[in-house]
Every structure is written in structure tokens, then in C-alpha cells.
Input
Amino acid sequence: MGISAMLGSPIKRREDPRLITGQATYVDDIKIPGMLYMAVLRSPYGHARITSINTDAARQYPGVKAVYTAVDMKGAVGNVVVAVPLGKMGEGMGIHGPLAEGKVRFYGDPVAVVIADDRYTARDARDLIDIDYEPLPAAIDVEKAMQSDAPILYEEFGTNVPFGMHPPTDDIDKVFQQTQADGGVVVKARMVNQRVAPVAMETRGVVAEYRKANKTLTVWSSSQIPHLLRNILAALVGLPQHQVRVIVPEVGGGFGSKLNVYPEEMAAAFASMKLGHAVKWIEDRSENMVATIHGRDQVDYVEVAANKDGKITGLKIYGISDLGAYSQLFTDVIMIAFGFPVSCGSYDIPTIHISGDIVFTNKTPTDAYRGAGRPEATYIAERAIDLVAHELGKDPVDVRRINFIKPEQFPYKTAAGAVYDTGNYEGALDKALQIVNYESLRAEQKQKRAEGKLMGIGLSSYIEICGFGPKGTAPVGLYESARVRVEQSGTVMVYTGSSPHGQGEETTFAQIVAEEFGIPVENVLVMHGDTDSTPEGRGTYGSRTTAVGGSAVYNAVQRLKEKMTQIASHMLEASASDVTLEEGKFSVAGSPQKAVTFNEVAATANLSNTLAPGIEPGLETTVFFEPEACVFPFGTHICVVEIDKETGEAEITRFVAVDDCGRQLNPLLVQGQIHGGIAQGVGQAMWEQVVYSEDGQLLTGSLMDYAMPIAEELPTYELDHTITLTPVNPLGVKGVGEAGTIGSTPAVANAIADALGVAHVDMPFTPEKLWKIIQQQQQQQ
Amino acid sequence: MTTKRDISVTVNGEQHHSQVEPRMLLVHYLREVLDLTGTHIGCDTSQCGACTVMLNSESVKSCTVLAVQADGCEVTTIEGLAPEGSLHPIQEGFWEKHGLQCGFCTPGMIMASYNLLKNNPNPSEEEIRTALKGNICRCTGYQNIVKAVQYAAEHMQAAATQPVGAGE
Output
């Protein structure tokens, strides 16, 4: 492979050899001499008052080192951090410490921890803790939880609603009236974006080791945010930041669920500081289903107005976000800050009205889950288009076309307030239609319907917002960083502030460096996840790592290239402006035989004692990159389903995805991200759902009950792409981590509604639900 | 505290004599007593398959087998699938076809694929998907895992490779 073709090549991942041979180190693989194990006792009730706690028997159990409850940690450990506390949360509503005090507010709420010699003993002793509860009625249904007679989680506030936004409706009312007066339509629907569980295959886990002699705390955690964890945890346990080191080893998936500083990390750190031993906690899967954040859980009332030709004149959304029992880092802003700004989707909608409430319920807290707010917003926009098409009897393709923001309109400011960078939405749609052979597919559908079969075709022309974030968009700067060092051997070390959990940045970041320096990718090493050796970073989430972290690497390389050019020009006795670097050689313009290699320059920079005056020895630089704006990837997904009338079972027979994430650094990895994203998006549409009983018991508490997508059920994905560069970062990349999830769910939903010939069906599309609809339809005929 | 039991297990061709609590899970024995941490725990209830190993030539989920049940048995884990310094064609397939992302399910997925190809050297796509229904991956959407197994099937037929720790 030519070196210059490195960037954009589908090379194999450099992280794989350790992963396929069982030699990778995840948190649970870490052993430290004298290490103790922590088990967490959790609430068996959705909502209850704690009347007494007796830990005597547990403390006396052989092998137990300590038992801690909220009382023990009071004053020593701070509260779980909330990035932007909205409304009454600023007064303390929904804010919580690591362990429940006085009251438990969800099934799984942590109440006590046991520290023991081994994990079996810790669990044995946990069973000996005696707690008296006075069970309380639970607020489970989010809309009932808003009513005045609902059980209240935080009595002192007298409501479960900490914040709402309700701007005046005059403008949208006028648009709706005018549209109807002009012979157009206003279509309404209530849509439930159900609660799902992230289920990273590696559950969460932490090892905290406090060394009393030098007062240092080292924390190994399965986390997406090593630096934020270090900074926040240091503040919470009262240590100066330089005395806390976080090491994020191999991470077995995150999907947003490891983007928090969790109570167990706080408790393990506290216990280690008390006991002077390392403390390990590994979440088991049943714990993971309650103790790790859930995603989505939003109810939306949607009204969309359109002219007779399908042109949308106005969109009105009222969203209710189910927060669960407490606020975690981003719980309260998922709908408002990440979803609402992209409510227009890829469409030129002149008037939009957005209102919403956020509501506490007796359930596990929700927070960022792959897409975080954007899947919900996209679901609304894409379903709204199909509602209009259904009402007017038009082809949903035509309704999309007539409403798309056109390529010449960029940068485009939406009525919802976001400024889209670049896009060619119709280009992606056309490509997808071509792949799926849309016209013959519609003909096939007609044929099948004539035979009494239910076939549906669903489209989704999504956009998403990623690459967070520009100045002023968050309480802290959302930059990324890179320290790049060219060693005397010519090896390049990259220390990135970004920390991956399966995305493959050891490969893609190395490709950026190899391409720019013209050296073999094998000569580049990418290090991440250790706060002692990597510069400050903000973490891997929101499809931001390549756009922000990759750009930091790119800029660092440019800086070093400049210095190397100067050194090379001195070696070549030429003017620096005449020296260029190509394919790993610095040569003088006009006389290509006059050249020094990259490795020779690297050696000179690091070893020579006769560098030109003013040139500092060494080749190392640290760069921070803060983007000027967000980036907006897009694409069109098309899903084809067939529903068995007898059983209600839906089968996805085709799934076509044309995605545009800007420049692709490694198409193999881009496809991998899209595949996995589609699987998760399809999973939500078809099977996944977290279910609680009315009194707050979790009914989907293990993988026996929670329906994870499996190989047998998922379709083969047919992928293609378009490439629309962005000017927002030097690489022209947009982001691809969440695109598959965001785009796929509405495509499935639209296909199901199309197959049944109905306006709307709520997810998940279980056979029982679809069978009932089919039965009703048959009875009405 | 319960009385410990003596067990003798051959893992990846090496015999181990250990004393374990009767309730100790095989996966904890492999990971914590023998330090073979390539076998992972993903669900505790036999759904996810991250803990899949070969036990006397059959694949089992080692989170629902007790260590004492493996007494006198031969076990092959991901660490024993190929001789040191080489890769089994299934491992190669996962690398070549981008059949993994976070890698956590991968050892179990590879062992389940090994069990499939042992019994059916030339499976169809449908047979691969069915055989792997007890192994959950949250990252890849399975398409590249299917391709990885197909790659392995082709290469194993070209040159049969046996694991060091026979396991059977």
C-alpha cells in the first residue's frame, strides 16, 4: 500500500491482536496485592423510607473489613455531579450522594457497601445487612408522575417536575390556522420513545487504590471519561487533583453509559482511602440493569402542519423527559440540549414550537445513550414526515424531497436554533433509493398486498449533531488534546486525551500521523486513558473523538512538521521555504536527490548538538483543539419489513444505509460503527424495552428478560456512503459513532406503519402488539 | 466457610491441582485461580456467551458451570486456541473482517465459532447466525462476525489447525 494512501485506507485494527488472544486487560483482570472486594446492597423497593439499618452481623462476618452506609460517607464524599442543574435542581432536587439516605427512590438504589477479602465473602456478608423499609407508592408512569396526586420523590419540593419550558404558542397557532385555511392539514400523534438499557457487554467496574504514605489515589475504571473522572472524583473525595490518577484500561463498550462519575466509583475510592488497601468492585449484569443509566424514555406530543403538496409549514413538539429518580451528569439536558436543537431534522421547516417538561420518577436515572436526545428528535421529525405523507396519500420520498434543506442553503440556521455546517440530503436519499431499487420495491409491495401480505417500506433521512463542542455551548470547554513526540528512532508517540472503548483510535489516529509524516503506520503508537501521561481530554461520546481529538493530533503533527522542515533545511543547507516533506523524505525543491529522511531528521533533532541557532532540541508538542462549530452528519436509511399476519412477527428483509460522515479516515471502521449503530437502533425499534411494574419493580432485570438483538434476528446491512466535507475541522470529518442508531430506528418504525397502513405504532414492534393491530383491522373490515 | 474440594483440571494442555469452594464457578476458577483472564463474564445467566470455553470437546458457558464439575476434565480457553505467537484461523478471521470493536464478547464469540466449525466445517450464513445466537455482541451488529466465521471456515478447510490444549 502506498504510504500516501494511508488515510482513507481500510486497514486492519492495531488493537485487535491482544483482544482476539485473550491478552487484553479490562478492569476485572486487574489484581493488586492485598486487594479487597466491594459488594453493594441495593433497594428492593421502587420507593420506600428507610426506618432502620443494622450492619452488625455483616461487620462481624469473617473476612469482612468494613460496612459503610450514607452516614459513614457524609461529609467525606460529595454528591454525584450534575453538569447543568435545571430549575429546582439548582436548589438540590434530584441531587444525591453515593448511598441513599432516609429514602430509597428506585429499585436498585445503593444503600450500603461491604468490603471483604474476596467477592464471595463480600456478597455473603451483604445478605446479613438488615434494613427496615416502609414502602411508599411509586411514581412510575411519567405522565401520571406529573399530576398533583402523584407520589412525590422529593417531598420538600411538592412536585416531580423540576423544570419545564413553555414559550408562547401564538406564532405556531397562526401557522396552523393559516395552513388549514389554505386547505392544508395538521396531523397529530403521541409518540413514546421507550426506555432502553445500554448493556455494554463489559459491565462497569472500578479498582481504587489509595496509598496512605504519599496520599495518592489511583483509580482504574471502565469509563469513557478518564480526565473528567479524575477531576470530579478528586473534588468529591477532597484530594488535590495531582494526587489522583485515573487509568482507563480496555473498556468493553460504553454507548454513553460510562460517561458518568457513578456512586460505586465514589464508594470504592472512599473505602480504599479508609482502609489503605485497593478495593475492587465489578458490577454484575443484574446490577448493571439497575445501577447503570438507562436511555431514551421520552413521551412526545407532535403536531405537524403541511400544505396540500406536502410542504411542511410548522412543527409543534411537546416533550416529556423521564429522568428517573436522580440526576446524573447529563440526565436533565438530554432532551432539551441534545434533542430539541435538531428537531427540524433535515427539513426546511419555517416555524417550530418546542416545549417540554422533565420529570422525576421512581426508576433508574436516564442519561446519554448512543445518540442521547438526537434519536428521539430524529424519530419525531422522520415520523412527522410520514404522518404527513400518510394523511395526504403521498409517497414519503416526495414529502422528504419537497422539504429538504437544499445544498445551497448551507450554512443553514434552523428555526430550532442550530446552524448546520454542510449537507446534501437529496444526494444520500437518491443513492439509497437506487440501491434498494425503490420503484420495483413499491411494485413488489403492491403485488404482495394484492396477495394479502403485509410488506412495508420505511425511510429515514436523518441528520445528527456531533463534534461537541464549540465555545460557550457547555459549562466547561469541550476541547480535545494531543501530545505528539517524534523519538530519535523515528517512532512517533501520540498521547491523546481522548479515550476509546472499541472505536479503534489506536488505528485511525496512527493513520493521521502516518499520512501526514509519510511514514509507515507501524511506526506510530497511540497511547490513551492514563491521566498521568495524557494531556487533558473531555472523553469519548457524542461522535466527537475523530472530529475533535483527531483534529488535535492533526494540528500537533503540522506543528512538528514545521520544526522538522526547519531542521531538515539546516541539514540540507537550503532555505526552509524550499524544503518539502513527501513520502517520509525532506527534499529541496528542484533537486529531489538532495534529501534527508524523516528518521534522519528525527535523530538529528533528538541527538545533535549542532542544531541551528534558535532551534530547541527535541520534537514534542502538545496541542488543544476546540472546534468553532458542531458538525452535522446525515444520511438515508431504508428498511423493508414483512409482517406475518398469523403471528404478528415482523421480519426485516432488507436494510439499506447511505451515510455521510464527511471524510472517512478508515472505511472499514466506519462501516463497523454503522453496523453496530443500526443493530442498536433496530434493537430499540423491534425488541428492547425496560419494563417496570406499577410499584416500581424492574421486570427486565437480566438478559433473560431484556431482549438484546442477536445474530439470528438481525438483517444483513447494505451500506454505501456519500462524502460531504465540513469546514469545521482540518480533517473534514463529521462523526459516525451514533449515526447508525439515530438513522435506523425511524426507518423501521416507518416501515412498520407502512406495512400496516396506519399513521403510528409505538415501539417496540413485538409480535403481540402487531398481531393485535392486525386483528382489530380484520374485525373492522 | 465451606469445606474446599480438591480438583484436577487440564487447561490448555496443562494440568492443575487446586482446592476450591464447591460453589466456585468455573469462570472464576479460570480467571482468578489460574489467571486466565481472556474468558470474560458478561451476564451471569448464560445469555451472553462471553464466558464460552470448550469443556471436553463441547462448548459451555463457564459462568454456569461449577469448577468442581470440571474435575478430571480438559478445558480449552481463548488463550489455548493457537500455539503461542500464532493465530487460529478464527482469530485471523475476526481481525481480517473487523469482527470486533470493544473486544469483550470476542473470546467467547471465537470459542463458540470454534465449536460450530468443529461440528460443521462449512456452515451457511444462516447456520452461523443460529449457532451464535447464544453469544451477544453489542458493538458489531454481527455482520462482520459472520464474515469472520466464513473466512475461518475457508482457511480451516485449506489447512486444518488443531488447538494446543486439545480440549477433546
